[in-house]
């Protein structure tokens, strides 16, 4: 064999080898989360422990900051999968979208906010809130709707019995509460625990415990993406389920150590206590299935808040449980 033919054959073999290696590259998925929150601990576990990579996925996480912005990014193909409140899928569907968002894997199953007071309330009763200055969440978002639902369960009309403020951006709520003359606020962890540790405020009740199970934060994708990338969605769901099981079986201290890279400004003891608080009230879903009872509870909460769109809100169209059921039965 001539040197030229030998070099040509060698080059061809190298190209074929590179092509074969390239075919084994992970599939890229752009994931957008509505905010950065340790409420989403299983998601960060899946990223840090390599569960997505094990499924052949390269998941690129970005924080979009806000339900409206997250859904805009999803519908415009800026992201492939959104982690956001399932109410947003209802809003999109009600606008007669031709390519609506489908919920396929539930991550959290309770509200994640806590009632925080600037003053100690050792004998707190819900009626103590009446006539108080209350810093609420964004109108139409899950925290505010669940908050209103719980208050009404305790015979408090949030718009008539409180001095309710809803004009502060989500990301600015903690600082607004700290610097303003508000007496109460709804806060997620770890902010609630940080405020408590600093002695500025006190956690006095849990909206998650009061409101019951609800599909609070869910992974969703456009209908077209689900149809065209079924295997990727299944792989994504398997990774999430593996993380859910690990979180369920693991002590808060170890979970905190794993997800700390996503919360570099939060002390480890705060992360640990916050995770323990969420675990103890069953906030982290133990499997990715969004069942119909939870969906109906969401609808009741939205209707009570005056935010449920008119017309049919079909569970069977907006929720795909087949993938999650297949994953947990593997």
Automatic annotation (TrEMBL):
Residues 1-19 form the signal peptide. Gene3D superfamilies: Periplasmic binding protein-like II. Keywords: Signal. SUPFAM superfamilies: Periplasmic binding protein-like II. Pfam families: NMT1_2 (PF13379). It comes from Oceanobacillus limi. It comes from the Bacteria. It is found in: Periplasm. GO terms for cellular component: periplasmic space. Belongs to the bacterial solute-binding protein SsuA/TauA family. This is NitT/TauT family transport system substrate-binding protein.
């Amino acid at each position: 064999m001539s040197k030229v033919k030998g070099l040509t054959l060698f080059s061809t073999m190298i190209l074929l080898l590179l092509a074969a290696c390239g075919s084994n590259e992970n599939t890229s998925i752009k994931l957008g989360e509505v905010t950065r929150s340790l409420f989403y601990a299983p998601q960060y576990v899946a990223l840090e422990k390599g569960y997505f990579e094990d499924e052949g996925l390269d998941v690129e996480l970005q924080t979009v900051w806000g339900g409206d912005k997250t859904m805009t990014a999803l519908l415009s193909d800026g992201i492939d999968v959104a982690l956001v409140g399932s109410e947003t899928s209802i809003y999109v569907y009600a606008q007669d979208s031709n390519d609506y968002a489908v919920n396929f894997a539930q991550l959290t199953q309770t509200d994640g906010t806590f009632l925080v007071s600037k003053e100690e309330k050792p004998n707190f009763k819900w009626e103590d809130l009446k006539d108080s200055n209350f810093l609420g969440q964004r109108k139409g978002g899950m925290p505010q709707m669940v908050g209103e639902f719980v208050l009404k369960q305790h015979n408090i009309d949030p718009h008539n019995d409180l001095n309710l403020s809803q004009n502060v951006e989500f990301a600015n709520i903690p600082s607004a509460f700290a610097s303003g003359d508000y007496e109460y606020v709804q806060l997620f962890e770890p902010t609630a625990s940080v405020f408590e540790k600093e002695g500025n405020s006190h956690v006095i009740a849990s909206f998650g415990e009061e409101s019951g199970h609800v599909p609070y934060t869910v992974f969703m994708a456009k209908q077209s993406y689900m149809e065209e990338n079924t295997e990727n969605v299944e792989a994504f769901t398997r990774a999430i389920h593996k993380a859910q099981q690990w979180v369920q079986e693991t002590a808060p201290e170890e979970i905190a150590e794993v997800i700390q890279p996503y919360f570099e400004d939060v002390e480890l003891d705060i992360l640990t206590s916050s995770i323990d608080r969420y675990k103890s009230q069953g906030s982290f879903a133990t499997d990715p299935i969004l069942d119909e009872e939870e969906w109906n509870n969401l609808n009741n909460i939205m209707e009570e808040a005056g935010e449920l769109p008119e017309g049919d809100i079909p569970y069977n169209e907006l929720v795909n449980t087949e993938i999650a059921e297949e994953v947990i039965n593997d």
